[in-house]
Amino acid sequence: MHDNRVLLEARIERVIRERIQPAVYRRTAPLTIAAWTVDDEPVPFDAAIGQRYEPFAVGGAWGKPWGTVWFHLTGGVPAEWAEEGTRAEVVVDLGFSATLPGFQAEGTAYTGDGVIIKAIEPLNSYIPAGDAGDPVDIYLEAAANPNIAGIFTFGVTELGDKATAGEATSYVLRRLELGQLDVAVWELLQDTWTLIGLMNELPDGLPRRSDILQALRRMADALDPDDVAGTAAAARSALADVLASPAYASAHRLAAVGHAHIDSAWLWPVRETVRKVARTFSNVLALMEEDPDFTFAASSAQQYAWLQVHYPELFERVKKQVAAGRFIPVGGMWVESDTNMPGGEALARQFVAGKKFFMEELGVEPLEVWLPDSFGYTASLPQIVAAAGSRWLLTQKMSWNETNRMPHHTFWWEGIDGTRIFTHFPPVDTYSAEISGKELARAERQYAEKGVGTTSLLPFGWGDGGGGPTREMLAAAARTRDLEGSPRVTMTTPEQFFQAAHHEYIEAPVWSGEMYLEFHRGTYTSQAKTKRGNRRSEHLLREAELWATAATVLRGAEYPYDVLNDVWKTVLLQQFHDILPGTSIAWVHQEAERNYSAVAVTLGEQITRSLEILAGDGSHPLTFNAGPNARDGVPGLSAAIAARTGAAEVTESGAGLVLANDRVRVVIDDRGLIVSMRDLVADREVIPAGEAANLLQLFRDTPIQWDAWDIDESYKNVGQDLTEASSVAVTDDGFGVRVDRSFGSSSVVQTLRLNGASGALEIHTAIDWHESQKLLKLAFPLAVHADRAASEMQFGHVYRPTHANTSWDAARFETVAHRWVHVGEPGYGVAVANDASYGHDIRRAALAGGGTSTVVRVSLLRAPLFPDPVSDQGAQEFVVSLRVGAEIADAVDEGYRVNLPLREVAGAGPVAPLVVVTNPAIVVEAVKLAEDRSGDVIVRLYESLGARARGDLAPGFGWSHVTETDLLERQTDPSAVIGRSDRAISLSLRPFQLVTLRLRRTATEDVG
């Protein structure tokens, strides 16, 4: 028989395009349109309604980039539209593109009395208009967000900066009228969409494929092109049998969860995210009114908090659906943060702040962590999740790996301390599914646990820019609930999915260590000022909380709960996975830098106030040490009259300038490079013969895609060593060496000094950076043979190989570290610490005379063009220190030293440590007062060396009771406290264990 499938499929496609789609609305009727253009930033409904509106017509241009236009729509639903099977809607086209629905113009529809109805977006473009004969009085707040995502060719755009975006109108109003929706025609369109999507995924020759095609042919035959409305029911009947045929017993099961990933900032500013949340959540509430089975999951307490402040009526409606179990807060974090770069305490506070809001404001505690889009996942996360009282984790981003595929979709993830959490990675490979046949087939095909598991999660709904599920998606879910040839799709909740998956697959495989994303490696370096602001803010918060606690406990001062909470929420927001990684438009990073400056001022004032209270009246020169270890004769967490250590003086030799003290001798040649660094204690040279450290290297940085996100391995192919110095001289004070050099359009000033206390060589690098698509690294070749390197992460460190034996090893050519990295061979090591950098690469290199060295390179700066064409331009500064003869404990100490400068205050006398720990392996990370404002003292600490550790913690204040708690400061079973006396608490910690202690105070005492 002649095979006419191609012609038949083309005929069916034409029937759908030319007959069914145009007939979805039987009739249309005009509305009267008036408009008011907002002068600058968005205004609330109450401010907009009283403005002067001018007549506006379809076809008119509107909206400068980032501008807002309010449209007032008036009219009435024609009385003759009172026909069964129809309903009236306002149909809107603001000038939409058919792709990327969350990245362009959007609108929010209000009733005349200010109640949000729902949103208008490219693929969700209707507003309910009431019954026949009803009046129409709707206000539409239209946001002219420029379609920056539409230029993912990574060309330069000025649209990401409001100051340079221009005044030209961005959009043309293409459609704004009443439409009479024909429900049967719309349902027919959904039938055909689902069946064609399924058919296209079935193999040729499969009877089911032929059955669907013939049913679609019968549908086309039954549909009268001159009376689509009158024959739609018959056309649907032609499809009824193939839609009713049940799925195979062995079909994969997909747990469909309504979802809308809303980036808290990205190609739009934070203020626009506030409106995106309102639009998305109102869409969801509207769908819940139509479909009683629909449930929706949304993360990020920050987004609910915005709704509570800016849209209180909408928040109350959400709250009611939360109580009903249909609107489901997930994640338990303040935002969907990056997990690579936030410090340990900051990542913990994501859960503290997030869960606190969900529990206090919405009465729920999410038990699943929801991070579908973060750029890799730190190996510290499992124990932080468990310490927050959560049980499960969902991620999707690992499907973006360039080289290696993750071997599991459902698994136990084991962190650095041995804690495991049950984890799922949906095989559909998207967090914004539309429940298409292609997506369903991909999920079933790729599911790695076939034979042992049966179910995976399907997060559906337009995401990134928000929008969420649509009525078309719900229709697709209903049709694929039990459909032959397709996986079974069942609406569910995240908790129901995880409970079921956990129950059926409790012996799931284990993935140990970090989930390193083999992509987006440039995020460790892009937007250096944002990263510096984060690092500084984290350490200022440590100081502010510590000294405020001491001032309260020791001097009776008032604890600044509200100030600290507000600052934490600012810092936590800016750890969102497109802000801290440096991948947002210029507007976002400009705002982030302003916020960090304000944070520094607020915390600086608070720290000063607390130190003055603690110091008391007097003229003694007190030094306050907020670090966990003693420095310059000052114990950690205390103040003392410090004994200053002498600075190393500079001398000249034939090889260059020499910095030396009793532990280290450093030679800096006339290029400003370190050609010798001799450890005098170990009598060992640290710089390999013929090599030079403190070497700035400049590379071409033109990734194939995702400009601000990616560093491609090919960057190494084209680069240069910056060895020409315009000046190498002794600093004016005689204790350091200053190196000046220039390259391209940029200049660098470096100052090298030896620290008298730690013996570390400290390199301060100030750069006036004006390069484009370049990567700047600072290199240290070291005479150690290291098979692996330790990199600090939250509450510990991770080891990574320095070789590239496997494809997994080779893919880690750029890695993240916090304050330090350490390389060593048995008996000897070197630590490289920093004050604001995260990107590193550490590899072995062959030496001319045989053997290998280990080269540590710190990534300082990039200059991507998209999405911010002026990223990183201007003044930048970095501190990197090199500490020789260092063990891991020394690296930990150096990391705190570089990031927590001592503070000088005149006062009455020393201030005893607030807490003392007898074993330096047990590090105090935070000291604060309890979240419940009871006055209890919270001490968070961790084992820092990766070994079992015992020690005593002695509080420096009166206390009566100690309990171990989770991160939310709820009592847990003891795991670290093994005893107590009147003075101290005995502790025993497993490697990298995180412990939170709650101490009940007996009284406020001035202990001097």
Automatic annotation (TrEMBL):
Entry keyword set: Glycosidase, Hydrolase, Metal-binding
Annotated Glycoside hydrolase family 38 central domain residues: 518-596
Lineage, top ranks: Bacteria, Bacillati, Actinomycetota, Actinomycetes, Micrococcales
Domain of life: Bacteria
Protein name: Alpha-mannosidase
InterPro entries reported for this sequence: Ams1-like_N (IPR054723), Gal_mutarotase_sf_dom (IPR011013), GH38_C (IPR041147), Glyco_hydro/deAcase_b/a-brl (IPR011330), Glyco_hydro_38_C (IPR011682), Glyco_hydro_38_cen (IPR015341), Glyco_hydro_38_cen_sf (IPR037094), Glyco_hydro_38_N (IPR000602)
Protein family: Belongs to the glycosyl hydrolase 38 family.
Xref: CDD domains: GH38N_AMII_ER_cytosolic
GO biological process, one term: oligosaccharide catabolic process
Organism from which the protein derives: Cryobacterium cheniae
GO MF annotation terms: alpha-mannosidase activity; carbohydrate binding; metal ion binding
